Amino acid sequence: MDAGDVALVGAVAAVLGAAVGAGGAVGAAAVTGRKQAQSQHNHWRRQVRRDAYAAHLVAVSAAISALDSAQKCYAGAASAASADLQQALNVVDEHLVTARSSGVVIFLEGPQFVASAASNIVQELYKWSWRLAGKLDPDSHAPQTDQIRTARQHTLTALEAFRAAAVQATQG
Predict the structure, then answer these.
(1) Diameter over CA atoms, the chain
(2) How far apart are CA 113 and CA 120, in angstroms?
(3) SS3 of the chain
(4) What is the SS3 assignment for 112?
(5) Which of 57, 55, 46, 47 is nearest to 161 (CA)?
(6) Which residues have C-beta within 8 Å of that of residue 124, sequence separation ≥ 6?
(7) Complete domains list, the chain, with CATH
(8) HSE of 128, CA atoms in CB hemisphere, 13 A
(9) CB of 151 closer than 8 Å to CB of 128
(10) How far apart (Å, rounded) are the C-alpha atoms in residues 4 and 10?
């Protein structure tokens, strides 16, 4: 092999090496790009969930405040037909609709255990409202005041369960 053949083999090897190197770089960039896109998508999903969970907590907290106000009216009312109590319960109803509506995104975005916790807290809010309005649990022989107190406690327990589920779902 003379010097020209060696130079030709060297040139071909250099071109092949450059092509393989460039192909590897392009392949690595494609893999990195896909991983970055997936990471950004996952980040976006977590952010949508966080926003939905926060909106639900705000709506639920407003409903709880309205229910606490209605409960104070109940304690001071001569009857369940008291105008102040009825007005307070009307405000509660508005907050309950908002709380129920705020759970829609949670049902869409999931996960299921958070959606269940969101649904449970709304159910407990409604039960508390119903007890204040005089709709008692037919299976309970407890007085209305005890049923109201129990409904409030169940609501707060459901709130804590939702918070815990939301935190668990947003980690990772």
Answers:
(1) 114
(2) 11
(3) CCHHHHHHHHHHHHHHHHHHHHHHHHHHHHHHHHHHHHHHHHHHHHHHHHHHHHHHHHHHHHHHHHHHHHHHHHHHCCCCCCHHHHHHHHHHHHHHHHHHHHCHHHHHHCCHHHHHHHHHHHHHHHHHHHHHCCCCCCCCCCCHHHHHHHHHHHHHHHHHHHHHHHHHHHCC
(4) helix
(5) 57
(6) 151, 154, 155, 157, 158
(7) 48-170 (1.20.120)
(8) 30
(9) yes
(10) 10
* Burial of 106: CB neighbours in 10 Å, binned 0-12, 13-18, 19+: buried
pLDDT digits (tens, 9 = 90+) for 88-132: 999 999 999 999 999 998 998 879 999 999 999 999 999 999 999
pLDDT one-digit tens code per residue, 37-94: 677 767 778 888 999 999 999 999 999 999 999 999 888 776 656 788 899 999 999 9
Q: Per the structure block, which two tokens stand in for 8?
A: 């030709």
